[in-house]
Design goal:
By secondary structure, the chain is α+β, with helices and mostly antiparallel strands. The chain folds into two domains: about 160 residues, Immunoglobulin-like (Sandwich); about 40 residues. It contains three helices and 13 strands, in the order αβββββαββββββββα. The protein is elongated.
Length: about 220
């Protein structure tokens, strides 16, 4: 009964803590962030971002929302990270809404035990790049709770993802293609000119060669 009560009370705290006035504790250096800071992918590719935490003390549970541009990216999957699960049994919640571009995820340890210290991965999200453009991957409504059910103060760092076309094996954002267009055309013209010069030189070489005398029969 005590175990069920602890889990229920912590989930209530995570989901509705904005309505309470619990004092915030913890180090101001604690940060939740999206890694990598920027992602550049080809149209039609899938990619994965990690939501991580750094320099936290006594983390027992967390909750967050991640937003993105749903016309550019589609969330395929979200999995729990190892930061809490690597220390014991956890309770995990996830909700994905690709219509509005929002993910809700929450996780808490289970049982009467201390929280986790240090840095690690809270969860990982995989996306499909379905249209060209740039999307912010923004964290908000983030909450951290320690083993005493106190909120932990923290900072938040977001990231972005750019869906680009491929030019010559290199990924170049679409809005940069217009700048490169004159140079791409110039490169094509130079290549054509070089080919014509080579063909002309070979023909001239054959023409200048002395004709061999015919052998007597």
């Amino acid at each position: 009964m005590m175990r069920i009560f602890l889990i229920t009370s912590l989930l209530v705290l995570l989901l509705f803590s904005a309505e309470f006035s619990y004092p915030a504790v913890g180090s101001p250096l604690t940060t939740i962030y999206v890694n990598p800071f920027t992602s550049t992918v080809k149209l039609g590719q899938t990619f994965t971002i990690n939501i991580k935490i750094s320099d936290v003390t006594d983390l027992y549970g967390w909750e967050l929302k991640l937003g993105w541009t749903p016309t550019l990216l589609e969330a395929l999957d979200i999995i729990q990270g190892s930061f809490l699960s690597g220390s014991g049994e956890t309770y995990w919640i996830e909700q994905v809404d690709n219509t509005t571009g929002i993910i809700l995820a929450a996780c808490t340890l289970v049982g009467n035990r201390p929280g986790v210290n240090g840095s690690g991965t809270l969860c990982s999200v995989s996306f499909y790049a379905e249209a060209l453009g740039e999307s912010v991957l923004g964290l908000y409504d983030t909450k951290l709770v320690d083993s005493f059910e106190q909120l932990i103060t923290h900072a938040v760092n977001n990231s972005s993802a750019t869906v680009s076309e491929s030019v010559g094996g290199f990924l170049i954002p679409v809005d940069k293609l217009e700048l490169l267009a004159p140079y791409i055309g110039l490169a094509s013209a130079v290549t054509l000119a070089i080919c014509l010069i080579v063909v002309f030189a070979k023909r001239r070489e054959r023409k200048d060669e002395p004709q061999k005398e015919a052998r007597p029969k």
